[in-house]
Design a protein that fits this description.
Oligomer: heterodimer
Radius of gyration of chain B: 13 Å
Distance between the termini of chain B: 35 Å
Number of strands of chain A: 11
Strand content of chain B: over 45%
Distance between the termini of chain A: 32 Å
Helix content of chain B: under 10%
Order of helices and strands of chain A: EEEEEEEEEEE
Structural class of chain B: mainly beta
Order of helices and strands of chain B: EEEEEEEEE
Radius of gyration of chain A: 13 Å
Structural class of chain A: mainly beta
Chain lengths: 113, 112
């Protein structure tokens, strides 16, 4: 399917487990982003990537790891999940020629018990 | 912290224009005004952006005051599907692509 997809859409995991959230886009956009959204905080940037093999930290990167070996994929890994990482996670992508517009995926709702 | 101030919530009658204000009194000369919206449980959606001139697209119009300290997003004929949280964001051109800072936004409720 064309666009930006996230998987899984819902995930329940236990404290201390490693979990990876997937993001895939079909536009060949160079920029990709991960945000988390919590009640009372709005969306906050976790990591972003300007191109394959180029990543940088956002506002709330502690406890998260990203990689980008292929332009179309940008997985987000929680190395040892904590309850404070219970949130809705959104992936987005953007092309430099459309600098101003970020396209968001449908989100992954993660619960850490 | 977000550089913008928006009302927490607004109501609008279906078919009427929805005018959503945003204050950005500390905006600098190279910063643009962006608007996104988020319909319940979905990812945010880009609406429009501008620097100093008024802008219009198929979704909305953006009116920026001459001193650029405030702006208004106008949805000309609001429908029930426009019920969402609307975010006004100030962002520099050419800065880090990561600097899209979302505040709390305005919850717009369109009523029949």
């Amino acid at each position: 399917d064309a666009g930006i997809t996230q998987s899984p859409r819902y995930k329940i995991t236990e404290t201390g487990r490693q979990v990876t959230l997937m993001c895939h886009q079909t536009w060949s956009h160079s920029y990709m982003f991960w945000y988390r959204q919590d009640l009372g905080h709005g969306l906050r940037l976790i990591y972003y990537s300007a191109a394959a093999d180029i990543t940088d930290k956002g506002e709330v990167s502690d406890g998260y790891v990203v990689s980008r070996s292929k332009t179309e994929n940008f997985p987000l890994t929680l190395e040892s999940a904590t309850r404070s990482q219970t949130s809705v996670y959104f992936c987005a992508s953007s092309d430099p020629t459309g600098f101003y517009e970020q396209y968001f995926g449908p989100g992954t709702r993660l619960t850490v018990t | 912290d977000a550089k913008t101030t928006q009302p927490t919530s607004m109501d609008c009658a279906e078919g009427r224009a929805a005018n959503l204000p945003c204050n950005h009194s500390t905006i600098s000369g190279n910063e643009y005004v962006y608007w996104y919206r988020q319909i319940h449980s979905q990812g945010p959606q880009y609406i429009i952006h501008g620097l100093k001139n008024n802008e219009t697209n198929e979704m909305a119009s953006l009116i920026i005051t001459e001193d650029r300290k405030s702006s208004t997003l106008i949805l000309p004929h609001a429908t029930l599907r426009d019920t969402a949280v609307y975010y006004c964001i100030v962002r520099s051109y050419g800065g880090s692509q990561g600097n899209l800072i979302f505040g709390k936004g305005t919850k717009l409720s369109v009523k029949p």
